[in-house]
Amino acid sequence: MDHTAALLEQTELFGETVRDADWSAPVPTCPGWTVTQLFRHLGRGHRWAAQIITDRVDRMLDPREVRDGKPPSDIEGAIEWLHAGARAVIDAVAGAGPETPVWTFLGPRPAAWWIRRRLHEATVHRADAALALNAPYELEPEVAADGVSEWLDLVAARATGETSPLEPGVTLHLHATEDLGPTGEWMIHGDPDGVRWEHGHGKGTAAARGRASDLLLTLVRRRTAAEAGVRLFGEEKVWADWLSRTPY
């Protein structure tokens, strides 16, 4: 899929979701935050990633060091600031070269890694805004499925034997109900050193089945399986342990 186009689209949709909202409204899925704080977090995060790439930063960049990290006070100016942040990520990757290694919180990765990361930061935080404002939320199955895969990549990269969300020998199967071919199924395996996953069909110790967007929101704990209409099978403790050990 085209991560660049999707990043621009999801950022724009986030802006439209909050444009006419009460920006002082709380965001229950991000405890302690208001819509204003959620907006600033996403917009500054885009610029944070762009600055890491353009400045060849080799450490965790302090958000206070992000250039132009605060949006204008007027709504239209703030929305344009948000959109410009997404474009800044894309321009930074183009300037550095998509395959150029850059700093990430997982270690060096190709610069284009940040486009995908910021895309799915936007998809999830758009859901946060929609849930807070009782606004509609739809996500194309292909984008949602890619979000599931990207999230599993993050989980697998961080997991160790001591922090693994799955015990060795335990498997979790995810199945999107849309016709997505191999990219709509995931087999996740617990190993002594952490977790690994691949696309494919199989019988897991536990399984979850639902629309790709509902699977994504359930995995990142924005909705419960019951709220999202995701059906669970097998050992419920496996699913509960996975969620408790994989905070977003």
UniProtKB/TrEMBL annotation:
SUPFAM superfamilies: DinB/YfiT-like putative metalloenzymes. GO terms for cellular component: plasma membrane. It holds the Pfam family MDMPI_C. Residues 6-130 form the Mycothiol-dependent maleylpyruvate isomerase metal-binding domain. Residues 142-240 form the MDMPI C-terminal domain. GO terms for molecular function: metal ion binding. NCBIfam families: maleylpyruvate isomerase family mycothiol-dependent enzyme. This is Uncharacterized protein (TIGR03083 family). It comes from Thermopolyspora flexuosa. The lineage of its organism: Bacteria, Bacillati, Actinomycetota, Actinomycetes, Streptosporangiales.
